[in-house]
Each structure stands twice: as C-alpha cells, then as structure tokens.
Amino acid sequence: MEGLAIRASRPSVFYSLPGLGGDSQRRRPSSDGFLKLPAENRKIIANSASFHPISAVNVSAQASLTADFPALSETSLEERRINGKEKAENIVWHESSICRCDRQQLLQQKGCVIWITGLSGSGKSTVACALSKALFERGKLTYTLDGDNVRHGLNRDLTFKTEDRTENIRRIGEVAKLFADVGVICIASLISPYRRDRDACRSLLPEGDFVEVFMDVPLHVCESRDPKGLYKLARAGKIKGFTGIDDPYEAPLNCEVVLKHTGDEDSCSPRQMAENIISYLQNKGYLEG
Amino acid sequence: MSTVGNSTNIFWQESPIGKAERQKLLNQRGCVVWITGLSGSGKSTLACSLSRELNNRGKLSYILDGDNLRHGLNKDLGFKAEDRVENIRRVGEVAKLFADAGLICIASLISPYRKDRDACREMMQDSSFIEVYMNMSLQLCEARDPKGLYKLARAGKIKGFTGIDDPYESPLNCEIELKEKEGECPSPVAMAEEVISYLEDKGFLQNE
Predict the structure, then answer these.
(1) Any coiled-coil ranges, and where (chain B) (predicted)?
(2) pLDDT computed for residue B12 by the predictor
(3) A97 falls in which pLDDT band (50, 70, 90)?
(4) Reported pTM
(5) Which residues of chain B does A90 touch, with a Cβ-Cβ cutoff of 8 Å?
(6) Could you tell me which CATH class the domain B19-136+168-202 is placed in?
(7) Could you tell me which chain A residue has the CA closest to the CA of B156?
C-alpha cells in the first residue's frame, strides 16, 4: 500500500440528464497534494518540505533506485534516532525536486483521475473528448488514457485473457496515478467491467482524487449504436468474452458521477455531460491551484 | 474466428485536444530527458536540480525514477534479465505518454544496456529524446556509495551489480555528456544549467 489513503463511504452525485438532479451531497475535498510519505516510513517526519524519504532499499537485489546523493542532514539523522533506533541504513534521504503543490500552483489546478466506465458504445470516449476540450477551453491541462491507445504502447504485450485484462487496468491505474501526481487531470476511458479492478485503481489514489464516472446506458442502446461493429461480431459468435454479451459488466455501486441515458439526445449531448463532470470538479476544488 | 488476442478489435481514438494544444497551454514542448549512468553517478541529484530549475522558469516537469516505478507500475517485476528489460520498456512508454502530454519528463535510471535505451529512443518521434550520460568514474561512484551497494557488491552479497559484475554500456551518441572536470564533479545546479541550455537551444522551453 502506498501512502495513507483511507476510503470513507462516498455519496455519489447523480446526474439524470438534463441538468442536475438526485442526491448531490457534497464532500469536502481532501488535503492538497502534499508529499505523501510511504506508509512504512510514516514515523519519520521530514523537518522540511524539501526533503522526503526514498523507500527502503532491498539489499537482496540490485536496485535501480534513486538517491545517489545521501544528503543526510543532522536533523534527519536526529529524527531517526527519536524513533528509538536508526531506522535504516536502507532509507536514503535526498532533497526533493519540487512537490505536487508546486506543480498545482504552476498549473492552477489539482491533479485527479476521471475514470469513465461503461459498456462498449456507451459513449466513454465521446465524453472523454468533450471533457478534455471543455477543460482546455478553461485553461486546464488534461490527458486521456484510452484502453485502446495504451494497448498499442505500454500494454502491447497484453492480450485479452482474463489475467491480462486485469493487468491492463492495473497498469492504466498506476499511470493515471502518476499523471495525477504531476497535476494533470487524467481522464481514463475504458470499459473496465469488474468492480474489483476499478476499486483497486481507486485505492491507489488519495481520497477524493479518483472520480468514477458511470456511463449508465442500456445494452440495447449501446448495441444499436455499435460504433465499431463489435456487438454484431459478438452476436455472431466471432468474438468471445465480449462485455455485455457473454461477459458481465458490473456497474459501480457507489461512484461519484452517474451519466444516465435519458433518450433525449438534445439534453444528452457530450458537451452537457462534460459540463456536469466539470461542475463536480469545480465544486471539489480541482479547477484551482 | 476467435479474436481473443491483440489487435483486430483495437481502434485508435481521435481526440480534438492533442499535443499541439497542450504544448500551447504549457508554453513548452514535451520531451524525455533520459539520465543514465552508474549507481552513485548523480542521476537523481541532477534530476531534482533540473526539475527545480525548470519549475523556477515556469516549466512543467516530472521525474520518473526506477524506485517510484518499481513500487507502483513495475511492482510485479524482479531483477531477472528479462524483468530489467521490461522495467525499462515500461518506463520508456510512460515517458512517451508524458512527453505527449506536453511535459518535460525526466527519467533517471541506471539503464545500463544500450539496446534498451535505444529502444526507448525509438519510441519517441521528432528528436524529443534527450539522453544525458552521467560519465562519472567508477572510482568516484564507489567512493560515494550512497546506498552502500558497492560495498555489498564487493563483498559478493549482491550479484549482477552494474559496474562491479555487470557491464555498463556507455552511450555512443548521446545528446549531453556530463563528466568530472579536473577530478571534480560539477555542482548539480551547474549540470542542470547545462541541460537547460540544451533544452533552450533546441526550443523545448517555448512553444513554436
């Protein structure tokens, strides 16, 4: 486990388009993105924001690790003695570059992950595009991780076997976490059908920084769209294990935003849906430094 | 016809907001600064100094280092030869994503094999892979030995340690080489300034 993120119960903001509606109890945003000490080092407190500990070196294996430069100040040594014993020869301190808050200040936004989940054809990529465009128009930096794009690069070694699908999502979660740490609003747009896998990604991030958006669109609507012709192939038995046809989709039980299909195309536009997500981000303070 | 496998169901997604727009927003050009060298050569120190100096100039950068990644994205990898290759490959792919996002991505890893570093270079287009070689002598690195790993390696307690019983293949054609001058290592700030001059000359610190 990295950091001290603690999951509390989350009220979801429910948007039944058009407009806002439903239960919209707000949460207070979590603390600003200050440096998080790894859980095992939490007794060691940096006396200055400019130092942070590197995780323990595993001396049984060669490490391509950081911290070539020890910079063991007197104060940091003292801190370790306060804990009763020298905590580690293994932990090497070095002066931090800049912290998350510096980047937030530069970008005038807070990094987070917008995780858009739903059936194929539910409109995930469409909303992701609209969202990144709308945020750009507000001067905000986003980056979209799309299951398909990532499978051509980072995840090109993975297939569609069950364990590889889990690994696909895990890696995307880890990369999204890095983007959020940079201060980028990272939009991840992928079916991600299993609750367990999505929840695992949620647990990587500090409380509040994982914004799950559920594209609540009925199967028959997705299938009637069939933008890539995959439902047709799946119905013909030419694709096995296709989500919604012969593989389950587990809807979120407690996500931050639900975008429910109402059948009214005018009020259900991608732009409208993007604006609803933006309202959420604004209320939670992610659109300021 | 089973299509459980790669490729055929994968489509490229077009997005209206691309690298050009992000670079305009950030007023910089995304790139990868890949710092390579022996353990103890000063890679992390340079990476920190560089990101600080860039931040002072209002430029957005982020450090990817072996340690951060091995506890997250690469936590499933060990230190077998194939895992080391995969470690570097994944770092390269993530660095590419960061550069595409418009960031100046600073990757700081020993990355001892030319083939692996060159593979990362190949992932990037348009000369935005900047290889920085920390050409510090083994003697200097070992004298520093910031993590005590050279000592352990010499005692035979670590096997396959770069520089002791595993090779370091120095770059043949890197963009920047930083080395000792008259037996003295330049300061981190001086070295950072050298990298920044290069980035400036090549137009990475503005958007054109």
Answers:
(1) none
(2) 53
(3) low
(4) 0.80
(5) 147
(6) alpha beta
(7) A60
- Judge whether A94 lies within some domain: no
Chain B: give the shortest CA distance to residue A22, in Å: 31
Cβ–Cβ below 8 Å for B97 and A143: yes
pLDDT of residue A194: 95
Residue extents of the structural domains in chain B? 19-136+168-202
Task: Give A185's contacts in chain B (Cβ within 8 Å).
Answer: none
ipTM for the predicted complex: 0.91
Identify the CATH number of the domain in which residue A245 sits.
3.40.50.300
Domains in chain A, number: 1
Please tell me the distance in Å from B207's CA to the nearest CA on chain A: 15
Rounded mean pLDDT for each run of 10 residues along chain B, 208 residues in total: 51 72 96 97 96 96 88 91 94 96 96 96 90 96 93 93 94 96 90 98 92
CA distance B201 to chain A (A): 23
Residues 6+ apart with CB under 8 A from A129: A144, A270, B13, B14, B15, B16, B17
As separate numbers, helices (DSSP H) first and strands (DSSP E) second, chain B gives 8, 5
Q: How far is CA A89 from the centre of its chain?
A: 34
Place of tokens 């060669």: A62
Q: Is A142 a domain residue?
A: yes
Contact (CB, 8 A) for A188 and A172: yes
Query: Among B45, B78, B160, whose Cβ lies nearest the Cβ of A68?
Result: B45
Q: Would residue A92 count as lying in a domain?
A: no
**Residue A248 covered by a domain:** yes
- At CA B35, angle to CA B34 and CA B41, rounded to 5? 170
